[in-house]
Structures are given as C-alpha cells and as structure tokens.
Amino acid sequence: MTAQQVYTDTFKLSELDYTASMDDLLLDMVARQSAELHANDSVDTLTLEEIMRLDSIEREMAEVDSLRTLNAALEIQKLPKAPELVIEKSWLKDEVEDRNDVLTAIRNMRSPWRREASVMVQINQHYVTDNWYQGGTSSFAGYGIAKGYINYITDSFTWENTGEWRIGGTTVRNDSLHRVNTTDDMLRLYSKGNYRIVPKLFVSLSSEIETRLLPTYKTNAREWKSAPFSPFRFTAALGLDYKPVKNLSISFSPLSYKVIHLADTFHVKPTDYGLEATQKTQHNIGSSVRLEYTWKPVREVALETRFYAYTNYKNVELDLEVNCDFIINRFMSARVVLHPRYDSSVIKDGDKHARIQFRELISVGFNHKFR
Question: Are 365 and 339 in contact (CB under 8 A)?
Fold first, then answer.
C-alpha cells in the first residue's frame, strides 16, 4: 500500500511503500518525529524499539492492536483523512508524552468523542512568631482547579461541553469573625452545538451556567459577598460561530438570554450584582459576543484567552480572562491569571459610576491531566 499526502507538523510522508499494519506506521512516525524534533539534543533520540519497550506499553497495547480491525474496513482513498499526529516541539524531552499523543490520535480515529480532564492544586504556608523582628502574620492558603471537557466532533456537527470548578481559601488573622475566607469560588458549565453551513462558519446554539458553591465574607463583618448559588447565572445564545484558524472561535449571538438569580437575599445584597434592592431574579434579552483562543507555541506553554461581551441595550457587561500555564514537568506547573471585567449595572456604595473590576493570580503547584 502506498500512503500519499499524509502530513504531520514536522515531516511529510510521500510515496512511502508500506505493507505492514497501520499501528507500526504510527509508532514509526513517533520515532521519526522525535529524531527530527530533537536532532540537536545531546541525548539519544527515541527509536521504534525503545517505544515498544516503554513500561506502560503493555497496558495500552489494545489501543494499538485494534487498528488492524479498523484498517480492514478502510478504503485506500480514505487514508488522507487519518488524523494528524501532532507531536509538539518540547523544551523537555519526554518520549512517554509523545507516545501518549499518538495513542490519543488512535482513539480519535475510532470515535468522534474527545475527552480530557486536568487537576491543579497549589498550597502556600507562611508562619511567623509574634516577636518576629520584621513583624507579619502567619497564613495558610490553598487554590485548586478541576477542569474537563467532553466533545463530539464530525465534519458537519460539533458539540462542545466544558466544566470547570475553581476554589481558593486563606486564613485571615486580622478578621475577628472568620478564621478562613474564600478567595475564589466558581463553578462553570458551558455547552455549545455547532452546525456547519459553509467552511469555517457555523450556526451555533450555546448555554452557560455559572455559580458559587461556598460563602464569601467581608472582613470583620457579618455581611456576605456571595453565598451558595448566589449569584446563579444562566445564559443561552443563538447565532453564528466563525472559526478562521485552529483553536480560534468568534461567536456572535444577536439573540441572547441571561438570567441572574440570588438564592440567598438575606446575606447577599442584590445591588452588588446589578439587581434592584428588592429583586431576587432578573431576566434580560440582548446580544452577546464571545471569543475563545488557545495558543501553544511549545508544549510547555499554553495561553488560553476568553472574552465575553453582553448588552441588553441598557447596560453592558465585559469580561476578559487570560490564563497562561507553564509546564515545569509532568506533574508540576505554574499559572498566571489576569481577569479584568466591567459591568455597568454594578455600582458600589459611595460610587457614582461602575468601575473596572480586576483579579490576578500567580501560582505554582501540582498539575495532572487525565485522557
């Protein structure tokens, strides 16, 4: 069999006489990519034999062996539709990650479903005695993120589902009423269905739920900033999704519905979230724009950008979130978060106009992905 016009990011297979099974070809592609990507490294490059001897190879060989059944049903003209094997250039030479990328591509060949989950945990502890010459207070802080997605992808239809939970807390020494306070708490569920009408342009229907699960207090006060399911936000949008390049999505929804609900109006002030003082639920109809972009120049750096704009033709809400992850090794990473937002309907006590809100985070800790 001759495989033509099969491409990867780093080399081209052209007029390759191939009579063995597809799984051997895929593994050989890993070896060739590893050799080219790390041609200038001082360490030895990965060979096909070394791939086969990796400790975890026996556990997942069923993923590779099942290709033989698949190949029997494939026609030769369908070979160019085989998924790209993207072995990203890496500062850290990691053959196991290269091999896992290939196994993921093999799974993607057999099913339109894509799934991945990740967990990140950071802990910071600082202790000083009361007579420490520089002063200061002891503190303990923790921060965690659990995130995952389940997507269904075909040529004409895609269904993307993402879930994320952020939780952070710190001890508060100068607060006489609370020993621990929540610094970040956000549960977000996002679902979007796209139907292709022309190349790169889709009809899109999306929905999003965003809420809190834990209470957040004001310092030395019994008044709460937020409570469980207060606020609870739900949005639904119908419009167009434009994807000009890979990992970039620009959605415009001329019809967008948003509801804000406070389950607890005893502890939480409705005016902090743009509601009237006696209002518990607010319904809005307007338009929205959403931009999502992911950029990975190398495997150790991942920049995720999300911009959301909504207007009900009376007030405007703008939200920009930039997350940059730096991979230290397979289990350690650092994260930088920049999150400015503006909501013209939220005017704090003492202010005449709404002001820009801002959140920033720099953290280092444990990180792991599940595929």
Answer: no
d(CA 307, CA 291): 5
Nearest Cα neighbor of 83 from 22, 134, 143, 133 is 22
Distances (CA, A) of 295 to 249, 291, 305: 12, 13, 9
Q: What's the DSSP call for residue 227? A: B
Positive or negative: CA dihedral 309, 310, 314, 315: negative
Tokens read off for 297: 């120049």
* Amino acid residing at 272: D
Cis ω before 231 (30° cut-off from 0): yes
> Please, which residues have CB within 8 angstroms of residue 268's CB and are 6 or more apart in sequence?
224, 225, 226, 227, 230, 231, 262
**Greatest pairwise CA separation for the chain in angstroms:** 79
Structure token digits, residue 364: 């280092």
Give the pTM.
0.71
Structure tokens, 348:
């704090």
Q: Which two tokens stand for residue 174?
A: 């100068």
pLDDT in tens, 241-267: 999 998 899 999 999 999 999 988 888
Pick the CATH number of 114-370 from 3.90.550, 1.10.357, 2.40.230, 3.30.70: 2.40.230
**H or E element: which one contains 345?**
none
Please name which of 107, 189, 203 lies closest in space to residue 158, comparing C-alpha atoms.
203
The answer to whether 138 and 126 are in contact (CB under 8 A) is yes
β-pairing verdict for 232-242 and 201-211: antiparallel
Q: What is the pLDDT of residues 3-39, one digit of tens each?
A: 333 333 333 333 334 444 555 555 555 555 555 544 5
Question: Residue ranges per domain, the chain?
Answer: 1-111, 114-370
Q: Is 350 exposed, middle or buried (0-12, 13-18, 19+ CB in 10 A)?
A: exposed
